[in-house]
Write a structure and sequence with these properties.
The protein is mainly alpha-helical. It is built from five helices and no strands.
């Protein structure tokens, strides 16, 4: 048998079945996609209500790290665009740099978390950058105002 595993045999059998039944495979994909769309249409209002009521939804809990990174990153980015002032201990340019160092890595982490094209090393770099951005956010938490 050599280097073959039971999974290899299973995958070969699945490939053979798909090649012998192409229309059943296509209809199966269409049917599954229709079910996904129906679930999203049915549940999206529920998730929106949950977010409005408590700030997060059951769907957000599936990947709370990504949700928080996206919310904080987008909020800090928007704060930079609409701010009228900055903390007294830093200049306006320094404050903009701090906000960029927070928003950029968090948004990159939130958008790239489920990117299948990223290697493990790239994901690890994004993760560490997001952790550093959260540390910086925590350090300046009291200064996040407009």
């Amino acid at each position: 048998m050599g280097d073959h595993t039971p999974l290899d045999g299973f995958m070969a059998e699945a490939d053979r079945w798909r090649s012998e039944h192409p229309w059943r495979c296509r209809w199966g994909r269409v049917w599954r996609r229709a079910g996904d769309v129906w679930r999203a249409v049915r549940l999206e209002p529920v998730w929106a209500w949950q977010r409005a009521r408590r700030g997060y939804s059951e769907r957000d809990l599936w990947s709370l790290d990504t949700y928080i990174a996206g919310v904080v990153g987008a909020g800090v980015q928007h704060l930079k665009e609409v701010k009228h002032s900055h903390p007294v201990e830093v200049t306006e340019q320094e404050w903009d740099d701090i906000l960029d160092r927070i928003a950029g890595p968090l948004l990159a982490y939130a958008e790239g978390k489920f990117d299948p094209g990223l290697s493990f090393e790239d994901e690890l770099v994004q993760y560490e950058a997001a952790r550093e951005a959260m540390r910086l956010f925590a350090e300046h938490l009291g200064s996040m105002w407009d």
